[in-house]
Amino acid sequence: MSEAVPLVALVGNPNAGKSALFNALTGARQKIANYPGVTVERKSGRACFADGRPVELIDLPGAYSLEPDSLDEAVTRDVVLGRFEGQRRPDALIVVVDAGNLDNHLRFALELIGQGLPTVVALNMVDLASRDGLELDADRLSAELGVPVISTVAVRKRGLDLLMEQLGQQIASPGSAGPAPVGRGDITRRAHQIARTAIVSETQGRQWTRRLDSVLLHPIGGLLVLLALLFVMFQGVYAWSEAPIGWIETGFALLTDAINATMPDGIFRSFLTDGVIAGVGSVVVFLPQILILFLFILLLEASGYMTRAAFVMDRMMAAVGLSGHSFIPLLSSFACAIPGIMATRTIMDQKERLATILIAPLMTCSARLPVYTLIIGAFIPATSVGPGIGLQGLVLFGLYVAGIVGAMLAASVIQRFVTHSRQSSFLIEMPRYQMPRLRDIAIGLWQRAWLFLRRAGTIIFAATIILWALLSFPKVPEGAVESQVEYSVAGRIADGIEVIVSPIGFNHDIALALVPAMAAREVAVSALATAYAIDAEDEDQQAMSLGMQLSGKWSLATALAFLAWFVFAPQCISTIAVTRRETNGWKWPAFMVIYLFALAYVAAGITYWGATAAGLG
Amino acid sequence: MNLDTLPKQALARIVAIDWAAIPETEGHRLRSLGFDTGVTVEALHKGILFWRDPIAVRVGRMTVALRRKVAIAIACEPLP
């Protein structure tokens, strides 16, 4: 073996508890990156053998066999076989099987053992299996498979030391090769036969999953529960985020005050306060909302409910040519389209996967919230239209619905005329319910927060600085009638764009904001904030809230058209980039950008002309 | 009898699967999930609202959701 730290891959079926085992072995010190050339996440981390030598672990995507049905499974196969360019072949495998689902998971385990790498089998979730009335004999299983089998309970760290000890021994002196590879037809029979040998006793157990499913998959009750969950989720995103958003805003305000108090007025102070803090600060404030949304999604996934939601939604998604498989990525897209588009990898039908990617940006992602909140707060009166229903909330709800309806219409047109899909399909394993572990959820949330802050610190930071510079130079000469914003480079670029967007009611300020908002939608808000901050004539005007400034300068029809624009406009560089990577070329991102901009222009136009005709201009 | 008409809670053994009637990727996944002749299945849940689609089936100790158009291709005989 080489001098390098040995590389060990965790591999197994989906729902075998692989990620929990990976978290338990490596702790929070994980590195997330992508495999070269694809957006499949590569999770790696360090652990130690019994004698203290380090080992690098990688968590491969869950798969059913070495004959892939999806992109995820193809990565797993290529890494295990050592065919993946830019990724060295693992020195050993930890094959994770669910103790409660032996006859199914042993099939893939047999395939993997047949590869001849040093292998240890983790018989995982033995506690859940015995809860379900299943007692297993790990030694008998080990004798049949020809490799060590260790009973583990990843979430309670049971069996992990023994697992690492056996792994170390296997790498040091690989025992006899596993059983001779068997043909595909035989492998199922062999798996069943081995499973029967390993099962000591089998009773009905308490069957929690069955009881819960009778409610959660009930033809009417199941739908009501899902709707109630979604309601609580979106309610939580707003209600629970208020306080933390306030803290972040206060923090940035204190920072601005401190800089104003300690630094002399000048170009560098303007750069820090008008550029960096106004720009990046306006984006970081909605970290709480993103985290709350992801908290719900991680909980739904870890508990095993997510596939039930897919079951409940399948028939309705079928009406527009999609299936329950698309529901999960689309739900994630309400937080952010990027993880949503990446989650489409598990969709087997490639046409459906493409259609789902193309409509994912229509789900109202959290980046639209600052835009919506700003405009609604400034232009829609906080009146009540019924008991407990405010007009502002109703407008926001309408914007969400507009996105969903737009997505469904787009999906049916795309599936019919673009991908020419004849029929969607739905075939999915529904795992047992489990109590989500706090630790696994916390690690997931931390990873999301880090990815978001890194984005704010790079793309959004850069876009903000460029915009600040374009807005600040050249300096308007003393005594000129033009304002600084109009005189600047950005102002002159906006003059050109204004020609195109003025028919749909957009003014010069909006034309100006749309350019940097190409980087990310929320930048539209920081762009307006930066423009008005630079343009402010005195301290009083600078202190006036952005909303108040807007309501003095824009007509209601313009504001509504601006909202309609952002329901559709694909203004997010990261989404376009991830679409390019996921579809292997520029064809589909180009199609996506064009059709969404066309929809945005038409929607904003209809809104503006309609509102003007109704006398709201 | 085919899997789509199997009454809820009833056990049955798969006697034949018409692989030609199932798209290739779905057929492959179906095998991966343990569907094969001789395997015992149980219909657990059927559809949402007024649709009778999709259905949830127990195979071994696992629950699998599938659409009726696939279930139609799976012939089974009821077990006592």
Salient structural properties:
heterodimer; A: 617 residues; alpha/beta; Rossmann fold; seven-stranded mixed beta sheet; two-stranded antiparallel sheet; elongated; B: 80 residues; alpha+beta; five-stranded antiparallel beta sheet; 5 strands; 36% strand; globular
Written account of the structure:
The complex is a heterodimer of chains A (617) and B (80). Chain A has 617 residues and is an alpha/beta fold. In chain A, 60% of the residues lie in helices and 9% in strands. Chain A has a seven-stranded mixed sheet with strand order 2-3-4-1-5-6-8, sandwiched between helices. A two-stranded antiparallel ribbon of chain A has the order 7-9. The mean pLDDT of chain A is 86. Chain B has a five-stranded antiparallel sheet with strand order 4-3-2-1-5. Chain B is globular and about 30 Å long. The two termini of chain B are 14 Å apart. At the A-B interface, helix 3, helix 8, helix 13 and strand 12 of A face helix 1, strand 2 and strand 4 of B.
- Do you know the CATH architecture of the domain at 7-202 in chain A? 3-Layer(aba) Sandwich
Distance between the termini of chain B: 14 Å
As residue ranges, the low-confidence spans of chain A are none
Largest sheet of chain B: 5 strands, antiparallel
> Care to count the β-strands of chain A?
12
How is the biggest beta sheet of chain A arranged?
7 strands, mixed
Helix content of chain A: 55-70%
- Which term fits the overall shape of chain B? globular
CATH homologous group name of the domain at 7-202 in chain A: P-loop containing nucleotide triphosphate hydrolases
Q: Secondary-structure blueprint of this entry?
A:
The complex is a heterodimer of chains A (617) and B (80).
Chain A (H helix, E strand, L loop, with lengths): L6 E6 L5 H9 L3 E5 L6 E8 L5 E6 L11 H10 L11 E7 L3 H12 L5 E6 L1 H6 L2 E3 L1 H8 L3 E3 L8 H13 L11 H15 E4 L5 H9 L4 H19 L2 H21 L4 H18 L2 H17 L2 H13 L5 H9 L4 H6 L7 H10 L9 H11 L4 E3 L2 E2 H28 L8 E4 L7 H35 L11 H4 L1 H13 L6 H7 L8 H13 L3 H5 L2 H8 L2 H13 L4 H11 L3 H27 L4
Parallel strand pairs in A: 1-4, 1-5, 5-6, 6-8
Antiparallel strand pairs in A: 2-3, 3-4, 7-9, 10-11
Chain B lengths: L10 E7 L6 H9 L7 E7 L8 E5 L2 E5 L1 H4 L2 E5 L2
Antiparallel strand pairs in B: 1-2, 1-5, 2-3, 3-4
